[in-house]
Amino acid sequence: MGVSLGIFIAGYPDKDQVMLQLRQERAKSDYLKGEFDARIKFMRSQLGQTRADLFIERASRIALEKSLSQLRGELSDTQEQLVFYEQLIPPAPSGVVGLRAIDLNLQDDAISFRVLLMRSGQSGSRFSGVLQFVATGSLEGFNDTQSLVLTQLRINQSGDQIESKQHTDTLAQPFGEGLRLDFDRFQRSEGVLGVPPGFVPKHVTVRVLKGSIVHASKRVDL
User: Which of 120, 151, 176, 177 is most buried, judging by how many CB atoms fall within 10 Å of its CB?
Assistant: First the structure.
C-alpha cells in the first residue's frame, strides 16, 4: 500500500514545474496575442489608407466629370453660336480666299505671326499667290512703311503636309515678295518676320495677292 502511494505521488510534477509551465504558456499566449493585435492594427491602418485613397479617387473623378460636363456644355454653346453667326454671314462666291485668323506678336526686333487662310465652297483648283506683311510705324522720328521679310517659316497645308524652313537669305528676296501661297481649301502658316533696325512698327497690314490683285486684306495693331 505504501509503495503504491509513493508511485502515485511521484507520477505528478512538482509545484515549481507546474508554475514554470504555466508561465511559459502565458508568455507564449501573450506573444501570440501581441502579434495578433499588431496584425489587426496594421490591417486597420491599411483599410483606412485604402478608404482614404478611394475617397480621393472618387472626389477627383467627380471633379473631372463635372469639368468635362462643363466643357461639353461650353463646346455645345460655342457650336450653336458659330452656326448662328455663319447663318448671318452671306455665303461668299466659291473659291474666294479669306483671312480667317491672324495673330501677330512684337518681340524686340522681330514679329511672330500665325495666319489661317481659307477658301469658300468648292473651288476646283488651287490658289497660288503671295501673303504680304506691310508694317507702318516710325523710323528715326519719321513716319515710315516697311515690307517685312521672313526669317522663319512653318506651313501646314490642308492639315497633313508640314514644311518648316529657316530663311537665311531673306535680305536677298525681292522687296515685298512675302510668303508664297499654294493651297486648295486652307493653309495655316506661322513664323517670324524681321523688323529693320531702328524701325518701330505700330500696325501691320496683311494682304493676300495674286499678281497685282488684292484678294484679302486686314490690318492688325501691335
Answer: 151
